[in-house]
Amino acid sequence: MSTSHALGASVGELLDRADAELYLLSTGTPSGNRLLAAWPAYAAACARLMTAAAGRRATGHAVVTRWSDTDPVLLAGSQLYAHIKLAKVATRGVLPHPRVTRATELIGAAADLIECARDRPGVAQREVAQAATSRSAGIIRAAEMTLAGTDLTLRACGRAHQQSPTTSPNTRARLTWRAAPLFETRRLAAEVLDAAGGRPDRSDLDGVRVPGVRSPRPGDLLDDLQVATAAWRAACLATVHSSAPSSAELQRASVEARHLIALNAALTDAARAAGSMSQTDAILTMARLQRAGAAWSDVTTAWTERTTGVSPSQAHIAASLQLQRAIRAIGRDETGVWLAPEALAECVVLPAAFAAARPGLANVLDVGRAHADAVSLLVRQGGVFALANKLAPNEERVEARLRGGHVPVALAEATTLLEAYRASVDQSTSALGQVSAAARGCFGVGVGLADREVRRSHILLS
To answer: pLDDT at residue 412 above 60?
Structure first.
C-alpha cells in the first residue's frame, strides 16, 4: 500500500475521498467507453474491500473469527463478490477514466488498511478491525461504492446511446452486451444493502486507522471543528470570488450552514439537560436557531430547480467533507444520529464546546452575506438558469421549452431565491446574538469573534 494514499487516514476517510471522486465524475458527462474500461478494476477493488471487511483469511497473528454462514449481509456480499470475480466486460484499446482509477486506488488502500490492522500485533487495532460492527460496515460500504460506480457507468453508456445511436462505435446491441454484467452487479449490490437493513453505520470504519496514528482526544475534536469551519468559510467565499460561481457549491453551503446551526442547537439542548442553561434561555435560543435553520433550508430548496451550469471545485468538496467529519465527531453517534442531550453533555466540556462552535455561526453569517450579494448580482447578469418549461412561457423561450433546454432566470422569477438569502442572513444574525448572550450568561464566556460579529451586524442593520 502506498503511504501517500493513507497516511494519517482511516478506512472511512479513504472511502470518503473515493466518494468525492465519484461525485466530481457525476457532475460532468464522462465517456461511457472510458467508464466501462475502468469498471473491472473498480469492481474488483470493491470486491476486495468486501472480502477484507468480512475477514475470511487467516492472518499472521490470529485467525479472524468468521461470521455465521446464515448472516444475511455476509451471504448477499458473498454472492456479489462471486459475481464480480466472474463478470467480464470488453474494453479493448480504451483508457480507463482517471477519476475512477483514483477512486479504485483509494478503495484498494482501504482494503489494505483493514488487512494491515488485522495483521498488527497490537490487540486494540485487531479487535477494532474484527468487530462485527466494522465488518458489517465494511461490507455495506463496499456495496454502496459498487452501486455508485455501476450507476455512473450505466448512465454514461445510456447517454452515449441517446446522443449518437447510429454513429457511435457503441451500437445499441453492442453496448447492451458489453454493459450487461453491470445490471446484475447493480441488483446484487442492492440486495446487500437491503439485507443490511438496520445494521451498524459505515462510520464504524473510522476506528480502523493507519498504524501509529493516534485517535483524537475531545480537545482535538474541538480544534478540528474550528479548523474545519475556517476552511469551509474560506472555500465558500472563494465560490463568490470565482469568475463563474458554482450553483452546486452555493447549494451545498446552505446545507452545511444548517449543520453548523444544528450543532449549536444540540449543544444548547445539552447545556439545558446538564442544568448549565435555564429552561427559558434554552427555549429562546433553540427557537432562534430553528428559524435560522429553516431560512437556510429555503435557500437549499430554491436552488433545486436553478443552476449556474458550473461544477463544484475539488477544494470546496474537500472543505465540505472536512466540516462534515468534524461535526459528526462531536455531535453524532456511530450511526450518524445526533447524540441525546445528556450523552452529549458527558462527551464534551460544554464551555469549550460553545467557544468552538459559536464562531461557526459567525462564519455562517459571513457566508450568507457574501452569497446573497453574489447571487443577486449573478441573477441581474443572467448567470442563473432554469429549465424553460419550469418558467413562464414567452416567445424567446419557445424553442428551449420544446427541446427541454435551460434559459436565464429573470430577476422577477428569482424573488424566492433572493428573499431566502435575505431571511437566512437576518435569522442567522438573530441566532448568533442569542447564542452568544446565552453562552456568556451560562459560562461567563468573554467577548470573542462571535460577539464582535453580532455588534457589527447590528450596526449594519441599523
So the answer is: yes
Other beta carbons within 10 angstroms of residue 347's beta carbon come to 15
Q: How many residues does the chain have?
A: 462
Output the nine-digit C-alpha cell for 442: 451560562
| Cα–Cα distance, 178 to 174 (Å, whole number) | 6
Q: 133 and 104 in one domain? A: yes
Q: How far apart are the first and last CA of the chain?
A: 59
Question: How large a percentage of the chain has pLDDT more than 70?
Answer: 68
- Domain carrying residue 43: 3-202
Per the structure, the count of domains in the chain is 2
Let me know whether 334 and 397 are in one domain.
yes
DSSP letters spanning 175-190: HHHHHHHHHHHHHHHH
Q: Which residues contact 151 (CB under 8 A, 6 or more apart)?
A: 186
- Is 458 buried (19+), middle (13-18) or exposed (0-12) by CB count in 10 A? exposed
Coil, strand or helix at 10: strand
Both 173 and 246 in one domain: the answer is no
Cα separations in angstroms, 34 against 29, 40, 100, 345: 11, 11, 9, 51
Domain boundary among 168, 202, 236: 202
* Cα 154 to Cα 24: distance, rounded to the nearest angstrom: 16
Do residues 240 and 279 touch, judged by C-beta distance below 8 A?
no
Do 248 and 169 belong to one domain?
no
Does 92 share its domain with 241?
Answer: no
pLDDT score of 420 more than 60: yes
Question: Residues 365, 328: one domain?
Answer: yes
Q: What is the DSSP string of 55-84?
A: T-SB-SS-BPPPPPTT-HHHHHHHHHHHHH
User: CB of 112 within 8 A of CB of 158?
Assistant: no
**Is 317 part of a structural domain of the chain?**
yes
- What are the tens digits of pLDDT across the range 245-255? 899 999 999 99
As a whole number, mean pLDDT of residues 407-420 equals 89
How high is the pLDDT of residue 200?
47
